[in-house]
UniProtKB/TrEMBL annotation:
Pfam families named among the record's database cross-references: ABC_tran, oligo_HPY
PANTHER family: DIPEPTIDE TRANSPORT ATP-BINDING PROTEIN DPPD, OLIGOPEPTIDE TRANSPORT ATP-BINDING PROTEIN APPD
Phylogenetic classification of the source organism: Bacteria, Bacillati, Bacillota, Clostridia, Lachnospirales
SMART domains named among the record's database cross-references: AAA (SM00382)
Domain ABC transporter, first and last residues per copy: 4-254
UniProt record similarity statement: Belongs to the ABC transporter superfamily.
Name used for this protein in its record: ABC transporter ATP-binding protein
InterPro entries registered for this protein in UniProt: AAA+_ATPase, ABC_Ni/Peptide_Import, ABC_transporter-like_ATP-bd, ABC_transporter-like_CS, Oligopep_ABC_C, P-loop_NTPase
Mode of membrane association: Peripheral membrane protein
PROSITE patterns named among the record's database cross-references: ABC_TRANSPORTER_1, ABC_TRANSPORTER_2
GO molecular function per UniProt: ATP binding; ATP hydrolysis activity
GO CC terms: plasma membrane
An individual GO BP term: peptide transport
Length: 331
């Protein structure tokens, strides 16, 4: 059963040079107790689509149209104090850089106590006790001592564990993880991912996991949505994306080919996707990926493909989703 359903979401930003369509007709869902991974290059609309859920947009941003159904309620219509009650309580966020997300002038204990006092109306003494327990739950050693420290006194991995503890403080139904391991080294990243998987199993929390790293997606996600230029270009179960199958979007294929593999012969270079993501104020006429796609035809450059169902639980936005057909020379 879907806990979150985003349907045809359009999120725009007004700038001096024109309207930036950061999210342009996005649809995806997150099932209860499951993880949806959203992957794509910088500027693809991953974070904006997620921040639209809680309306954490810049002052020039707005939801132009579409629905965000969470637990049977359309969040697109929720405003003001009602949205504040949802943030941190029913839906929480782990941000990309913990050092800028934590307030440097307050102790960990004070910052971690706040969700309990605001949302659960605990006393300061009860909240501080619960804060220590949350630090213990995310496997921070000596939590009583860490609670008295300031963010700059902790390592990057410890700060990210604190952010996870804050996000899970009120046992939210949905956790939005916005590239939570980007600033961490590989060893600490593995620990954080393992911790998040353990907490998901223990608490049954649904996760919307945003990243540009397909390796992380393979480890974390149940389903994957690939985004490009503010649109979902492919969505399927993780085993379909990473397994051997007959269908894929050329952009997904390019991302897969760019991953280093142990079985790659010596001296063979990784295949890179040519070009760059187009400027949001100067998008191509047809398929947004056509200028970078080695399979693009005149049809691709003139017409924009719809997101269509290829097989069960697998949708692709491409005129030539079958690998065998496009590799036969449809240029």
């Amino acid at each position: 059963m879907a806990l979150l359903e985003i349907n045809d979401l359009h999120t725009f930003f007004e700038t001096k040079k024109g309207t930036v369509k950061a999210v342009n007709g996005v649809s995806y869902s997150v099932d209860e107790g499951k993880t949806l991974g959203i992957v794509g290059e910088s500027g693809s609309g991953k974070s904006v689509s997620a921040m639209s859920i809680l309306k954490l947009l810049d002052g020039n941003g707005r939801i132009d149209s579409g629905s965000i159904i969470f637990n049977g309620r359309d969040l697109a219509d929720v405003k003001g104090n009602d949205m504040c009650k949802i943030r941190g309580n029913d839906i929480s966020v782990i941000f990309q850089e913990p050092m800028t997300s934590l307030n440097p002038i307050f102790t960990i204990e004070r910052q971690l106590s706040e969700p309990f006092m605001v949302h659960q109306k605990m006393s300061k003494k009860e909240a501080r006790k619960q804060a220590v327990e949350m630090l213990r739950s995310v496997k921070i050693p000596n939590p009583e001592s860490v609670a008295k420290q300031y963010p700059h006194q902790l390592s990057g991995g410890m700060r990210q564990r604190v952010m996870i503890a804050m996000a899970l403080a009120c046992q939210p139904k949905l956790l939005i993880a916005d590239e939570p391991t980007t600033a961490l080294d590989v060893t600490i990243q593995a620990q954080i991912l393992k911790l998040m998987n353990e907490l998901k199993k223990e608490r049954g929390t649904s996760i919307l996991f945003i990243t540009h790293d397909l390796g992380v997606i393979n480890e974390m996600a149940d389903d994957v949505a690939v985004m490009y230029c503010g649109q979902v270009v492919e969505k399927a179960p993780v085993r379909t994306i990473f397994g051997k199958n007959s269908y894929s979007h050329p952009y997904t294929e390019g991302l897969m080919f760019s991953i280093p593999r142990l079985d790659t012969p010596a001296g063979v270079r990784l295949e890179a996707i040519p070009g760059a993501v187009p400027h949001p104020l100067d998008l191509p006429k047809g398929c947004k990926f056509a200028p970078r796609c080695k399979y693009a035809t005149d049809k691709c450059r003139e017409e924009e493909p719809e997101l269509v169902s290829i097989e069960e639980n697998h949708v692709i936005r491409c005129f030539y989703p079958e690998k065998g057909v496009r590799s036969d020379g449809k240029k």
